[in-house]
# Entry
Amino acid sequence: MKAAVFHGPNQPLKVEEVPTPKPGAGEILVKVAACGVCHTDMHYIDHGVPTFKKPPMILGHEASGTVAELGEGVDKWTVGDKVLLPAVLSCGVCRQCREGRENICDNMQMFGNHVDGSYAEFVLAPAKDALVMPDGVPLVEGSIIADAVSTPFHAVVNRAKVKPGDWVAVFGCGGVGINCVQVAAAVGASVIALDVMPEKLELARQFGAQMTINTAEVERVDKAIKKMIGDGVDIAFEVIGKPETIQAAYSTIRKGGLCVVVGYTHLGVEIPAAKLMFFEQAIIGSLGCRPVDYPRIIEMARIGKIKIKELVTGRFALDDINDAFELLRKGDPKTIRSVIVP
# Structure
């Protein structure tokens, strides 16, 4: 099969012929329909973030496709079935999994990190983890449900428990942030979207934001928000991964409010502990999505409660995968999410 192989940081992916894997017991071989292009992959390529599996390996963790072959003992699936593969696989037996928090499984394995991913014509997956993709969800665009949509869903619905009537601020309107906007709006929140790019803010309005703030044009975002709504927001989501934006997001929450950190940074962040205590505020993290939530997200997409097709603004052949990453590096404000179509 053809695959885009990662040989190490600071070099382009190489499209090569590699052996097509054979499914073992309990596995399925999936013919990849599409795989989303994610900043996580770029961290491996550009920033030297190590993968658990040593290169050479195949990246890519946002995949959809059709079942091509069944391993021994697999009876749930038939060849030709349309499936979505979650970004992270859980063991089902550790303490976190037993408590229903499989997204922070002690033994988690991630496609394109611990095991070969989906920037390839075929990918192996445990049959137990694959999810049905109904006819009402476009298979190619639906691939991004695996991460770009499910991660914000978990942050909004499970971690923040956003309710109708809540005021929500979303810092960062990239591929994940824009879905924080639309999921929060879908569950009834009033959303304020914040970014430095006017084009991103316009997209946020199209995906449900009631108000927008260009943070490059205001001196203090907390004052700008209070001027808009008279108080701080109930919940602020930071979806960028910078200490300064985490601090800014925290500054916008009301007394008793919540700040949810979705963006990743390895750097420390200073937060005023006195304010945190005296105003009974909270800061929590959010990672990935639980397996139990994927069918709900897929159904929301099927009935049009959340947009999927409109999120995919670029399609690239496997041979052009490095062009897709170059587009991601440039930060084109009109790009929401690109997918690789092998």
About this structure: Residues 150-159 form the longest helix (10 residues).
